[in-house]
Write a structure and sequence with these properties.
By secondary structure, the chain is α+β, with helices and mostly antiparallel strands. It is about 30% helix and about 30% strand. Bound molecules: nickel (II) ion. Nickel (II) ion binds next to helix 2.
């Protein structure tokens, strides 16, 4: 397994719309393992393939306390249920920034596992929020897009400054 490099906002590659996965096999399985490993190492509770510059519809999530309930969702399709609720979100591609975002309180997600088998998952609470956040990445959307222009610009400048200092 290997750790993958995580793109950071405002990297334009984060705006890429991911393509449907239609080939399943050892190569896809290896990538899914790397994606999960990279998420755990970061550490984070979710990571989309988009964030590691692979523009395929794959997300990894694990919101469990013991980091032992991984979900890999290939070609996820969301159905939103319930009311919109406010919650604080962060993102491995927007390090150090946490802001309130509204999300549906419950979801159903239909997806495939890395072997190509279809399954359906019902989620609420943090897991539901996390899956919605990760599915946004596959559309080239980031949680900062839900904030005001003023706030987003401030975040962009702050991160660009950090990136320049590191370079
Ligand atoms: Ni994110």
């Amino acid at each position: 397994m290997s750790l993958l490099n995580i793109l950071e906002y405002p990297d334009p590659r984060l705006r890429t719309v991911a393509a449907k996965v239609d080939g399943f096999g050892p190569q896809l399985q290896a990538f899914c393992d790397d994606l999960l490993e990279t998420m755990y190492a970061a550490p984070g509770i979710g990571l989309a393939a988009t964030q590691v510059d692979v523009h395929k519809r794959i997300i990894a999530v694990d919101v469990s306390e013991n980091r032992n309930e991984p979900h890999i969702l290939v070609n996820p399709r969301l159905t939103l249920h319930g009311e919109l609720i406010d919650g604080e979100e962060g993102c491995l591609s927007v390090p150090g920034i946490y802001e309130q975002v509204q999300r549906a309180e419950r979801i159903t997600v239909n997806a495939q596992n890395p072997q190509g088998e279809a399954f359906s998952l019902e989620a609420e609470g943090l897991l539901a929020v996390c899956i919605q956040h990760e599915c946004d990445h596959l559309e080239g959307k980031l949680f900062v897009d839900y904030l005001s222009n003023l706030k987003r610009n401030r975040i962009r400048k702050k991160l660009q400054k950090q990136q320049k200092q590191r370079a």
